[in-house]
Amino acid sequence: MNAEPLGHVAALWRFPVSSMAGERLERAKVFASGIKGDRTHGVFHAESGEIAYPGRDRRWSALPRAFSRLGGAGGLEVSLDGRNWGRAGDPRFAADLSAFLGFPAAIRAYAEDGPSPRYRRAPIHLLTTAALRTLRAVLPGSVIDERRFRPNILVETPEGVDGIPEYALRGRRFRLGKVILRGTIPCARCAFTTLAQEGLPEDREVFRALLHRFGRDLGLYCEVEEGGSLQHGDAVLQPEPAPA
């Protein structure tokens, strides 16, 4: 691996429940399946079994304003306001969530023989601050925040780096701390990026810009080639140059 740094880990994110806000971590264990506890559960219509799809169906559009995290003992905890937390399996929360959405809803764990996620592209989603700056330059009146894009890893790149440098990692192995990833494909975006979250207003211009100026993509999906521990501040090393 080349010792030249691309940047450093500025933030680590875990989203225990798909479509709900997640939790920012100081350190994380990374396995072949991704960050431990990430996107293990989903929100479903309690009667039809339909999975939440906030970016396409407005019935689910409030979900990004709710929160999920793993408690100290590793149990899934959820909140509708970010202050009052309860267990995901508590019937009282199911009732509150249903009232919040306006129809019967339930949180269910994904399983091979049970509910499955709407899509599963890759175990890790990486985004650089350079990519955010590039989008911000196109949309100076919008609030461009990493939470709109739900990366597992946000890489801080030097101020002079422009464009979307993570695309240079496609098909390449690179190291972050004790972890080795391989970049695969750009992350295709949907209207989820426009939805309101805590501190972020609804903004339909975000997806319009992604669609018309960025080919709908922003950020990079990655496979985990060697797992390990990762923490805030770890260097992200560029891969060695490809053979001539």
From TrEMBL:
SUPFAM superfamilies the UniProt entry points to: PK beta-barrel domain-like
Ranges for domain MOSC: 68-239
Gene Ontology MF terms in the entry: catalytic activity; molybdenum ion binding; pyridoxal phosphate binding
Domain of life, source organism: Bacteria
PROSITE patterns, per the entry: MOSC
Any Pfam family matching the protein: MOSC
UniProt xrefs under InterPro entries: MoCF_Sase_C, MOCOS_middle, MOSC_domain, Pyrv_Knase-like_insert_dom_sf
PANTHER family: METAL-SULFUR CLUSTER BIOSYNTHESIS PROTEINS YUAD-RELATED, MOSC DOMAIN-CONTAINING PROTEIN
Name of the molecule in the record: MOSC domain-containing protein
Organism: Muricoccus pecuniae
